[in-house]
């Protein structure tokens, strides 16, 4: 009974916010679109640099250096935008916290456009990925938001690389505190062991792309990657919209 009331309250809140959040550009505030054409055209995209995302050591573009790959279980990281990109950060916040579901597609298009132009056709065309997996939300979080923000991004990645999407492979076992509210040194402990692999897909040596919206300390991605590797995965690459 209580759960039912709670669910209805969540649905009502989502409906209200979805309908009334004003449609205006996250860059300049002009009404009518989430991102106007001039702001979209002046977005600053990151290049895929031949340096390790973690320590700055020289590596093949996109790859982690061997030491950082070992420490984090992440073998490569790709992201089109810096965490400090205010326009994209604003868009993501509206998408995640104002229940603007349709904005997900805009963000997914920004990601896939960058992947097609900057990555697939040039620097990473020799890598073959096997599977795309979005970082899951805990069930209660998913009910609250109504969608997993990483899933629509993962779909875009799937289309670019033409590999299967597995939304149910990973499960988040317990609720974790929001990473943004914790000091860096507490973030890994917060998410450590919070994922399990739900089904036996025969991951042996598969090259998996994990997709999340933001990579800052990498604690969540590291925890998810570790779980996938323990289940037999070969390499794990992370693709996120924003990175630190
Ligand atoms: Zn604008
Ligand atoms: Zn490194």
Report on this model:
- With 244 residues, this protein is α/β, with parallel strands linked by helices.
- The chain has a single domain (2-243), classed as Rossmann fold (3-Layer(aba) Sandwich), CATH 3.40.50.
- The protein has helices spanning 2-20, 37-41, 66-72, 86-97, 103-123, 139-145, 149-161, 184-191, 219-230; strands at 76-78, 81-82, 131-134, 170-172, 195-197, 207-215, 235-243.
- The strands form 2 sheets. Strands 1, 2, 3, 6 and 7 form a 5-stranded parallel β-sheet that branches. Strands 4-5 form a two-stranded antiparallel ribbon.
- Strand 6 (207-215), helix 9 (219-230) and strand 7 form a beta-alpha-beta unit.
- Helix 5 (103-123) runs parallel beside helix 7 and helix 8 runs parallel beside helix 9.
- It is globular, with a radius of gyration of 18 Å.
- The protein binds zinc ion (ZN) (2 copies).
- One zinc ion binds next to helix 2.
- One zinc ion is lined by residues 25, 27-28, 30, 36, 38-39.
The CATH topology is given as: Rossmann fold
If you compute it from the alpha carbons, what radius of gyration comes out, rounded to the nearest whole angstrom? 18 Å
Kindly state the number of beta strands: 7
Helix and strand content put the structural class at alpha/beta
Q: Write out the distinct hetero groups bound to the structure.
A: zinc ion
Helical stretch count? 9
Mean pLDDT comes to 86
User: What count of domains describes the coordinates?
Assistant: 1
């Amino acid at each position: 009974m209580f759960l039912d009331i709670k669910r209805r309250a969540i649905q009502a809140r989502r409906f209200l916010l979805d309908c009334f959040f004003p449609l205006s550009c996250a860059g300049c505030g002009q009404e009518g679109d989430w991102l106007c054409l001039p702001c979209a055209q002046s977005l600053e995209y990151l290049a895929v640099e031949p340096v390790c995302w973690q320590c700055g050591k020289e590596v093949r573009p996109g790859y982690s250096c061997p030491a950082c790959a070992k420490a984090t279980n992440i073998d490569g990281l790709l992201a089109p935008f810096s965490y400090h990109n205010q326009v994209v950060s604003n868009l993501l916040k509206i998408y995640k916290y104002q229940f603007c579901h349709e904005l997900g597609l805009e963000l997914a298009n920004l990601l896939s456009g960058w992947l097609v132009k900057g990555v697939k056709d040039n620097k990473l065309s020799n890598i073959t990925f096997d599977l795309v997996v979005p970082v899951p939300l805990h069930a209660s979080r998913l009910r609250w938001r109504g969608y997993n923000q990483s899933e629509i991004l993962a779909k875009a990645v799937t289309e670019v690389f033409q590999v299967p999407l597995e939304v149910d492979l990973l499960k988040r076992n317990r609720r974790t505190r929001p990473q943004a509210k914790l000091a860096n040194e507490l973030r890994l402990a917060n998410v450590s062991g919070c994922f399990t692999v739900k089904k036996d897909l025969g991951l042996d040596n598969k090259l998996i792309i994990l997709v999340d919206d933001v990579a800052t300390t990498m604690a969540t991605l590291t925890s998810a990657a570790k779980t996938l590797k323990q289940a037999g995965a070969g390499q794990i690459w992370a693709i996120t919209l924003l990175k630190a």
